[in-house]
């Protein structure tokens, strides 16, 4: 429900979580203010280059700069003119859906109808004690609040009741967005339960591919579409986005050389090596990179096209600025994605610009 319809286009997006990591090349560490400025500048580059969507994440930790997506996206709205603006993701289980909806409706008005929401359970749990929620209610909180979000999107007055939030009785939900409804997606990692929930709500599914063969994720797309169709939605209403780490350079060797240092830091700090800070060897990185969108424009296009045959998705979203990556390199990669990868993919899929 509320997911922008598939109009025959194939969209490209950029998203950032705003991580604060030591640049392994210089030993420097950007502060949160510097990262904010860098992110706004990257969004403007993406807008100018023709990228379709820009997303910012939500974390409540000192090693991330972004905790309030609608505030940052409102700033980006003033620096851009056409690019769509989304969270990536909103941690809905520990937020109030009414407040989230009103914030994004406000963003939608500021941006002339460019707002979207990707809602998720969250990869980390720090927001539960921070905002006074019980971790034992993790699944139920998300499911209940997602249903409320769907209803808020449908009507300016809402009557609703649930177990974990106070009821609403003919409540006025203001302001209303510029769009008829704010496109709503659900971020899905590896659980069929989240995929099915997205389908039942008629939301889009933003599927994160962060490693391993894409075929191992196919069952999640199948589960999503089966649940959505069983709930009464048409297959063309059920949109899939593929998200993940990506870096584009003129040659694959250049892409591997430039992305390795930042990816190794990010991997050690936030992913598989976070328990002991184990650095990622170049050999292991190149093995992981085989399943990621890292390489020349031609190789990235080939990977996206192959994934499209598997998933039938209509949006690809890339996370590039990780592990202290230099801003100039990130901006170059964004331009290559827009100017060289996107035309190759759209030509192969025979979709419009």
From TrEMBL:
| Luciferase-like domain location | 11-312
Q: Which SUPFAM superfamilies match?
A: Bacterial luciferase-like (SSF51679)
Q: Where are the transmembrane segments?
A: none
Q: What are the entry keywords?
A: Monooxygenase, Oxidoreductase
CDD domains with a match to the protein in the record: Tetrahydromethanopterin_reductase (cd01097)
Under Pfam families, the record lists: Bac_luciferase
UniProt organism field:
Paenibacillus glycanilyticus
Work out whether the entry's keyword set contains Protease. Answer: no
Quote the protein name from its UniProt record: Luciferase
The answer to keyword Oxidoreductase applying to this record is yes
Which InterPro entries does the entry mention? Bact_Lucif_Oxidored (IPR050766), Luciferase-like_dom (IPR011251), Luciferase-like_sf (IPR036661)
């Amino acid at each position: 429900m509320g997911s922008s319809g598939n109009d025959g286009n194939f969209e490209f997006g950029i998203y950032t979580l705003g991580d604060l990591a030591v640049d392994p090349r210089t030993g420097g560490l950007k502060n949160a203010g510097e990262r904010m400025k860098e992110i706004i500048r990257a969004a403007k580059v993406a807008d100018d280059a023709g990228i379709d969507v820009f997303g910012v994440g939500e974390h409540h930790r000192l090693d991330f700069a972004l905790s309030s997506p609608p505030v940052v996206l409102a700033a980006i709205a003033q620096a851009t003119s056409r690019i769509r603006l989304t969270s990536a993701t909103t941690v809905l289980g520990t937020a109030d859906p009414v407040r989230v909806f009103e914030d994004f409706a406000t963003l939608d008005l500021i941006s002339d109808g460019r707002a979207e929401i990707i809602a998720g359970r969250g990869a980390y749990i720090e927001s539960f004690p921070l905002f006074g929620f019980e971790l034992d209610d993790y699944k139920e909180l998300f499911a209940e609040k997602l249903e409320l979000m769907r209803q808020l999107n449908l009507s300016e007055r809402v009557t609703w009741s649930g177990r974990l939030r106070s009821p609403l009785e003919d409540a006025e939900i203001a302001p209303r967005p510029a769009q008829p409804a704010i496109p709503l997606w659900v971020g899905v990692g590896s659980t069929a339960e989240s995929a099915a929930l997205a389908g039942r709500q008629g939301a889009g599914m933003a599927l994160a591919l962060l490693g391993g063969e894409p075929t191992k994720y196919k069952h999640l797309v199948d589960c999503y579409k089966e649940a959505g169709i069983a709930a009464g939605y048409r297959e063309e209403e059920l949109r899939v986005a593929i998200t993940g780490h990506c870096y584009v350079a003129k040659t694959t060797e250049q892409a591997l050389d430039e992305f390795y240092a930042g990816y190794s830091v990010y991997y050690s700090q936030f992913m598989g090596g976070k328990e002991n800070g184990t650095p990622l060897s170049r050999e292991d990185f190149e093995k992981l990179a085989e399943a990621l969108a890292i390489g020349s424009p031609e190789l990235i296009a080939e990977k996206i096209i192959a994934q499209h045959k598997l998933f039938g998705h209509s949006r690809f979203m890339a996370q590039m600025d990780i592990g202290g990556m230099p801003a100039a390199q990130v901006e170059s990669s964004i331009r290559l994605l827009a100017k060289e990868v996107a035309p190759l993919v759209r030509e192969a899929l025979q979709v419009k610009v």
